[in-house]
Each structure stands twice: as C-alpha cells, then as structure tokens.
Specification:
One of its GO terms (molecular function) is DNA binding. By secondary structure, the chain is α+β, with helices and mostly antiparallel strands. It is 42% helix and 21% strand. A hairpin with a 2-residue loop joins strand 4 and strand 5.
C-alpha cells in the first residue's frame, strides 16, 4: 500500500464497525465472568487457569478493538479513495482477456455477500494497485496467468 493513511471503502467500514460492536459485546460478556480480584475465595488450579484464560481473552479482545478503532480513524483521515490510480477503496472497471468487463471495489476485508469486492491482497487486487486507466495488469489464477485492462476508475 502507500505507507500513509489508506482510504476505507464503505463496505469495509461497515464490516469493521459490525466487528467492533460484536467484539465490544463479547468483551463485556467475558469481563462479567471475571472475579473482582479481591476476596478470600480459595479456588483450585482449574479455577485459576480458567480465570487466566478469560483474562487472556480480554487482552486479545481489547487488542483487536484498539486495532479496529485505529483503522477506522485512519480511514476517516485518508478521505475518499483516489481516482487517478487504483488504491484500497477504489472502484475499478476492468476488461478481461475474454472481452468481458466487470466493475470491482478494492477492499481490505473479504465479504462473501459482496461479489464485486476484490481484496487488496488477492492476486487481482495486488495487480491492480497503483495502476491507472489504460494499464494492463497480469496476475495469477488457479488456471494460470491472466491479464486484464484497467478501463476506468470511479
């Protein structure tokens, strides 16, 4: 990518916001199960191990929440996707070798519900990044090497 703040597509933003809400709910559920740390309860090793595992889970959840919040802030700072070269968030019309054209969105997160989304780390996504209208890109598919022409960015 560019090394600076990367734009965030609407689809990616929605997915991150949903994940963030789910993680916050999960974190609250795990936090409720932890003991307050004080008191005179004497538990066996299994209880202690379980509590340590829940504390580790809280740490993992907190880390992912922080990561998503940072990415959402970065996406807001980056502004709209570029229309001069393909970047994350760009909408790109490509013409494949068989003559068919397709408009795809370059995103960060795979979304099975959005057939037009191409992730930036997929073979086609990587090939398109940084290119402009009129450029021909080559990428690998399960059937072998393929080419596509960048028709337009929008």
């Amino acid at each position: 990518m560019t090394g600076g703040p990367e734009p965030l597509s609407a689809v990616a933003r929605e997915a991150l916001e949903r994940e963030l809400a789910d993680l916050r709910t999960e974190r609250e559920a795990v936090a409720v199960t932890l003991r307050d740390g004080g008191g005179d309860e004497v538990g066996d090793r299994a209880d202690q191990a379980d509590e340590l595992q829940r504390a580790d889970e809280l740490d993992r959840l907190a880390g992912r929440i922080t990561e998503i919040e940072g990415r959402l802030r970065e996406g807001a700072v980056a502004g709209a996707p570029s229309t001069d070269a393909v970047r994350v968030g760009s909408s790109v019309t490509v013409r494949f070798a068989d003559g068919t054209e397709s408009t795809v969105q370059i995103g960060e997160l795979a979304n099975a519900l959005d057939a037009t989304l191409v992730t930036a780390d997929s073979p086609l996504g990587k090939a398109l990044l940084g290119h402009r209208a009129g450029d021909t890109v080559t990428y690998d598919t399960p059937e072998g090497r393929a080419t596509a022409v960048v028709v337009s960015l929008g």
